[in-house]
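Sequence, please.
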């Protein structure tokens, strides 16, 4: 648990909790929380469980360490380290995803690469959700439908939209497509 004090401080800063607010969420005293963040005290497993619950993350995320001493303020993901995102129904929809900042616990944005299927391989439903979305086509040609409007985009083209509008992305033309997507979580 060597880096847990740094992680606790980074999480509290990212969630914008005061020590008082975190104390109320966990039932732990402000002075004990401060000692944990300064590395003066080591948390018990029950304390780790309370903290993970307060931040709504898994215990392994809380006590795990990034490779190479990576901090929560910076997340570097090498091309060969990208992790497939496990999206519900991924096999059924035909979309493949790779996380671009999977090592960071708390994010204001979710960057990932999507490999959209072709029209005949894609689910017919669209994917509205809270927030905003930016897409940059890295390779190939795609057809994105946003709010009923179709847009054909090729490598180098981008689009930005309110992601509460129903949207769907498919590969068109020759070859496969890859799209960098940065989605905000909304308010």
């Amino acid at each position: 648990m060597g880096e847990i004090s740094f992680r606790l401080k980074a999480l509290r800063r990212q969630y914008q909790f005061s020590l008082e607010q975190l104390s109320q969420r966990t039932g732990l005293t402000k002075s004990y929380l401060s000692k944990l963040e300064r590395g003066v005290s080591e948390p018990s497993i029950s304390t780790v469980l309370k903290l993970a619950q307060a931040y709504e993350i898994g215990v392994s995320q809380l006590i795990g360490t990034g490779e190479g001493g990576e901090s929560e303020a910076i997340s570097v993901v090498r091309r060969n380290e990208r992790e497939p995102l496990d999206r519900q129904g991924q096999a059924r929809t035909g979309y493949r995803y790779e996380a671009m900042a999977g090592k960071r616990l708390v994010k204001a944005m979710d960057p990932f690469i999507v490999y959209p299927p072709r029209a005949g391989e894609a689910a017919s439903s669209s994917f509205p959700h809270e927030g905003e979305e930016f897409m940059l086509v890295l390779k190939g040609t795609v057809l994105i439908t946003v709010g009923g409007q179709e847009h054909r985009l090729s490598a180098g083209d981008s689009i930005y939209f309110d992601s509460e509008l129903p949207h769907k992305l498919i590969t068109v033309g020759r070859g496969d497509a890859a799209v960098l997507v940065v989605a905000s979580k909304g308010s």
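The domain at 79-184 is CATH 2.60.120.10 (Jelly Rolls).
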